[in-house]
Design goal:
single chain, alpha/beta, Urease, subunit C, domain 1, Diaminopimelate Epimerase, Chain A, domain 1, TIM Barrel, 3 domains, 8-stranded parallel β-sheet, 6-stranded mixed β-sheet, 19 helices, 24 strands, 29% helix, 21% strand
């Protein structure tokens, strides 16, 4: 069997796999497996990164992995035999940081995702308003800060021209900024005298002091609190849309990065109806306006919804800073802007240390949002404090986004057993990096943006997530960018910090077994091994036989969730 390019797979390992090493032959009288896949290029992602030809599945579990010859012992009168015809099979992908319900809702609202200029925004906003004359509030989002230049601050006048009589509020692509029209600002009571909240900024005209319509971080809540809540039906529709999309990308397990009671009830309703086909770790939201008194409520939610099904609310999400493009990511040194700001630490370090120590002692995994180098350090310091107080409890805390690093903190991930949760699609030199970030931090600091390879080389666990709807949930373009450090859709951008490129095996691992490790389910998913759940995918090309620049073109042909096809048709392969 052909070996992967640059593979570390040992010949002896491959031979062992092909000799039906995974288990003894089934008894002659056995009725046969439910399904047997043969003639595949099965990249198992087991500890040895073995290859195999065949996989047998019964009752949603993998019962055989090995050579075609050994698979014959598992074929009975009722066995469905699927010839993979040399196609690549992988364990199903997992996303360790994603927002499926909100992203699904946004897709049916005023959706600006994927549009790249103001004219397109005007067109969509105007058309949506005309098509929905009875909607009280026009909401949605997906606009790119790069369209509006440094600071990413769009004006209310653009929307006022299109929708003067109804409130409009549209979140940015990254979810850290909002764009409101005059009517929305009026309803929110935002005037010349309205102070900035401690965790946000009301962007103002530098001459008049009037709010211009863009709101950063916590300032968005001044408007959001007036927007009617999504209905249970709307949330369920959003989750259904998201699940279908994720299955088409080969994703069967996720960590939802922000959930509240409404989200948990949505997941539960879908599971009770028998329609949920995702394994979900739910990150309960840490309200930064409250303190330790909220832990009892988090424990109650965990107890109520952690019922042994597909949804496990066993994680707490703490947002420690904002984003670099609007200068709210917390930095050790000032941004190169007149104010000399160092960003906004959303939870002060001492409070963060206390909260994480208590959450860790309560058995919660902590899922941090940290983008700036100060925020990364504060999160690491908090975990270190928890370890000193509680010992190593195995809660697998992880820090997501991790854009801008101080090199001194890179070894601490491995030392503290903290998982580095990167969003790899962001690791290329687009306008967000070249126009909205590097000019305001300088080239020297920019060297330490998304240092995936350097962190990996320390022995730290690297896992990947998309942060959809911020960026695509499709793992293939994310993997391509992690490998090339270039855009997966355009040749207009140079390679960004080439020494931080990783290999294909590492990219696959980040979306499979390592993401499963984050989700505490590596014992049952994340690799193709006997005894694990048959969460499997078949793709249309062998990733090891194509150029890295073509990985983003790969397509999932079949997604299995517990042995059942949730995307594609087994008989049509």
């Amino acid at each position: 069997m052909k070996m992967p390019r640059n593979s570390t797979v040992q010949i002896s390992t491959v031979l062992l796999a092909l000799s039906a090493c995974s288990e003894s032959p089934a008894p002659a009288e056995a009725p046969g497996a439910d399904t047997v896949f043969t003639n595949g290029y099965v990249y198992t992602v087991d500890a040895d990164r073995s290859l195999a030809e065949a996989v047998a599945v019964t009752d949603g579990n993998i019962i055989y992995v090995g050579a075609n010859a050994g698979a014959a012992d598992h074929i009975g009168a009722n066995t469905k035999v699927i010839d993979l015809k040399g196609r690549m099979m992988l364990p199903a992908f997992q996303d360790s940081h994603i927002h499926p319900i909100g992203a699904g809702i946004e897709a049916s609202a005023c959706d600006l995702n994927g549009l790249n200029d103001l004219a397109a925004y005007r067109s969509v906003i105007g058309e949506y308003a005309s098509a929905n004359p009875d909607i009280e509030w026009i909401t949605g989002g997906g606009w790119a800060m790069s369209v509006f230049g440094p600071g990413g601050s769009p004006s209310k006048t653009v929307i006022d021209e299109l929708v003067p009589d109804r409130p409009v509020f549209l979140s940015s692509q990254d979810g850290h900024s909002g764009w409101a029209n005059s009517r929305a600002l009026e309803i929110a009571g935002i005037t010349l005298d309205t102070p900035n909240p401690v965790d946000g900024i009301i962007d103002r005209d530098p001459v008049t002091g009037e709010a211009i319509g863009s709101l950063q971080e916590g300032a968005m809540n001044l408007v959001r609190q007036h927007i009617p809540a999504d209905t249970a039906e709307t949330r369920l529709q959003g989750l259904t849309y998201a699940q279908n999309l994720l299955h088409s990308y080969g994703i069967t397990s996720i960590q939802d990065a922000i959930v509240d009671r409404d989200a948990l009830e949505t997941y539960s309703a879908m599971e009770r109806a028998g329609d949920l086909q995702l394994r979900v770790v739910a990150s309960l939201w840490w309200d930064r306006e409250r303190g330790q008194e909220q832990i009892d409520g988090l424990l109650e939610l965990r107890e109520e919804f952690n019922t042994g099904g597909l949804v496990r609310p066993t994680t707490v999400k703490i947002m420690e800073d904002g984003v670099m493009e609007n200068y709210t990511a917390a930095m050790l040194e000032p941004y190169l802007i007149p104010s000399g700001s160092r960003g906004i630490p959303m939870v002060e370090p001492e409070s963060l240390n206390q909260a994480v120590t208590l959450l860790d002692a309560a058995g919660f995994q902590v899922h941090f949002h940290s983008i700036g180098d100060a925020a990364i350090r504060y999160a690491l310091d908090a975990v270190e404090e928890a370890l000193l107080e509680n010992g190593q409890l195995g809660n697998r805390h992880h820090i997501s986004h991790i854009q801008m690093w101080d090199p001194a903190d890179i070894p601490r991930f491995a030392e503290l057993d903290v998982i580095a949760n990167f969003q790899p699609l962001w690791a290329y030199a687009d306008e967000y990096v070249t126009e909205l970030t590097i000019p305001f931090i300088g080239e020297e600091r920019a060297r330490w943006m998304y240092p995936i390879k350097t962190v990996q080389d320390t022995g730290a666990t690297i896992a990947f997530g998309s942060d959809w709807s911020v960026s695509t949930a499709n793992p293939f373009p994310q993997m391509e960018t992690a490998i090339t450090r270039k855009s997966a859709v355009s040749d207009d951008y140079p390679v960004f910090i080439p020494e931080e490129r990783i290999d294909l095996e590492s990219a696959i691992v980040g979306f499979t077994i390592n993401a499963a490790f984050v989700n505490k389910q590596e014992d049952m998913t994340g690799s193709i091994e006997v005894g694990k759940l048959a969460d499997l995918i078949v793709i249309d090309r062998n990733l090891f036989e194509i150029e890295p620049e073509d990985i983003s073109e790969a397509k999932v042909l079949l997604t299995l969730f517990g042995g059942e096809a949730v995307y594609g048709d087994m008989t049509a392969l």
